[in-house]
């Protein structure tokens, strides 16, 4: 998926303007890369992200969901509610962009014993 299409999907789902959706998408994925557990985290944990989103600095570590959203908000320059709505839209877009198994693998890599599972808006991820 090309970056403009990814941003358009995030914007449509979240109701955010395109520029804000792009900033939140970059912030969410940057924070996801930071949080990846295990071996080498890459800037593209799915292997299918738009090229513009794979130039993120890789890192390591884990955070609780509240801290995750705080980092997203800080990186994107938005408030907490916007970060939450945008993150939900980014993950929904990723769910449609990658296969179910790839998405489950990504989510499994986000889970850590200290942070617990990462749940979607309904409280459960597939």
- Name the average pLDDT: 74
**Annotation, overall tally of beta strands:** 0
| Span between termini | 22 Å
Low-confidence stretches: 37-41, 56-62, 113-126
What is the helical fraction, as a range of percent? 55-70%
| Helix vs. strand class | mainly alpha
The DSSP helix count reads 5
Describe the structure.
With 126 residues, the protein is mainly α. It is 56% helix and 0% strand. The chain has helices at 3-14, 18-35, 65-76, 80-97, 100-110. The chain is globular. The model is unreliable at 37-41, 56-62 and 113-126 (pLDDT under 50).
Question: Can you describe this structure in just a few lines?
Answer:
The chain contains five helices and no strands. By secondary structure, it is mainly alpha-helical. The C terminus is likely disordered.
List the SSEs and their pairings:
Blueprint: H1 3-14, H2 18-35, H3 65-76, H4 80-97, H5 100-110
Helix pairs in contact: 1-2, 1-4, 2-3, 2-4, 3-4
Keywords:
single chain; mainly alpha; 126 residues; globular
